[in-house]
Amino acid sequence: MPWQYKVLKVKTGGMVVPNLDGLTESDLNTLGQQEWELVNSIPMAKGGGQVEQVYFYFKRWAELPVNIPIEPVARINCPKCKAPNRPGATGCIQCGANLAQ
Ligand SMILES: [Zn+2]
């Protein structure tokens, strides 16, 4: 399964009371609308036990890499003119020959 990850490093703020205003509920909702799901957050402590910043880990489905081959659609060749037809087609798209078995 191709997953895509994003790490946001948010510094804590506040002179008196520590806060994480750098990442608001609105920010999280925006990320959620972009299909990012918050899967983990890790506070990075510095000396004295103070938290300087928090790492937020997001994941979402990645776009399939373009080099993954797409399964070709099965075709049925017309017995008369050899034109490729969709499976289940009753008449040849090119010559009109009856394809029903
Ligand atoms: Zn045909």
Explain what the structure shows.
With 101 residues, this protein is mostly beta strands. The chain has 2 domains: 3-61; 74-101. It contains 1 helix and 5 strands. It has one helix at residues 25-33; strands spanning 3-11, 37-45, 51-61, 76-77, 84-85. It has a 3-stranded antiparallel sheet, with helices on one face. A two-stranded antiparallel sheet has the order 4-5. β2 (37-45) and β3 form a beta hairpin. The longest helix is centred in the first third of the chain and has 9 residues, at 25-33. Bound molecules: zinc ion.
List keywords for this structure.
101 residues, mainly beta, 2 domains, 3-stranded antiparallel beta sheet, 33% strand, rod-shaped, binds zinc ion
